[in-house]
Amino acid sequence: MIEVGTHWNWTLAGVNFHGQVLIESWLVIAILLVISWRATSNLTLIPKGIQNLAEYMVEFLIDIAKSQIGVKHYQPWISFISTLFLFIFVSNWLGALIPWKLIHLPSGELAAPTNDINTTVALALLTSGAYFYAGLQSKGVRYFARYVLPTPILLPINILEDFTKPLSLSFRLFGNVVADELVVSVFAMLVPILVPLPVMILGLFASSIQALIFATLAAAYIGEALEEAH
């Protein structure tokens, strides 16, 4: 039976942790570390193989930051935007490639880290903290004047906007990942040979798009904060 929303809970000092999220997150981090080490362990003037792929990815992420944040302010934010994209990208691909739900645990189920609403909310809150930090760093407390511009009548709407941004980021990513993993798992259980393959390919495409959307919106919010601060 395929279940939704069940977790393998670990208890430490009276606090419950979702064990499957920690396991999958460590796996994602390990994959990224290994790829990074392989890509930079033997650098050549003319890149090839995994070094070429890594350089292309870096240029792609720099372009996202530059286009959304602006030429003047994008450089300090490349690492943040790149980390968001790569973590979400690899997490989503793990969920799309492997039917984790078919692996039985003592309780709960294995799934991509982004399959857990706590993970996507945490990423969204990090993004919110980043664009607040960007605005405050650039203009100080005067940054909050944006809430009453161009007219104080818009104060409730501008405040509400700061609540809807992390909500939309987290639920969009969470909903798409859960739906894709459920579809792949159901097909893998019913017809385990060929039928799931087209669904998995579609899931890989959708997972990539979700990572791109999240990173692009995060960069756009930071760019908006910096633009308003000048």
UniProtKB/TrEMBL annotation:
TM region positions: 17-37, 77-97, 117-136, 173-195
Keywords in alphabetical order: ATP synthesis, CF(0), Chloroplast, Hydrogen ion transport, Ion transport, Membrane, Plastid, Thylakoid, Transmembrane, Transmembrane helix, Transport
Subunit details: F-type ATPases have 2 components, CF(1) - the catalytic core - and CF(0) - the membrane proton channel. CF(1) has five subunits: alpha(3), beta(3), gamma(1), delta(1), epsilon(1). CF(0) has four main subunits: a, b, b' and c.
Annotated membrane topology: Multi-pass membrane protein
Entry's localization field: Membrane; Plastid, Chloroplast thylakoid membrane
Family annotation (Pfam families): ATP-synt_A
Lineage: Eukaryota, Rhodophyta, Bangiophyceae, Cyanidiales, Cyanidiaceae
Record's function text: Key component of the proton channel; it plays a direct role in the translocation of protons across the membrane.
Organism whose genome encodes this protein: Cyanidioschyzon merolae (strain NIES-3377 / 10D)
GO cellular component, one term: proton-transporting ATP synthase complex
Family the UniProt entry places it in: Belongs to the ATPase A chain family.
Protein name (record): ATP synthase subunit a, chloroplastic
PROSITE patterns referenced in this protein's UniProt entry, alphabetically: ATPASE_A
InterPro entries: ATP_syn_F0_a_bact/chloroplast, ATP_synth_F0_asu, ATP_synth_F0_asu_AS, F0_ATP_A_sf
Single GO term (MF): mRNA binding
Keyword Hydrolase: no
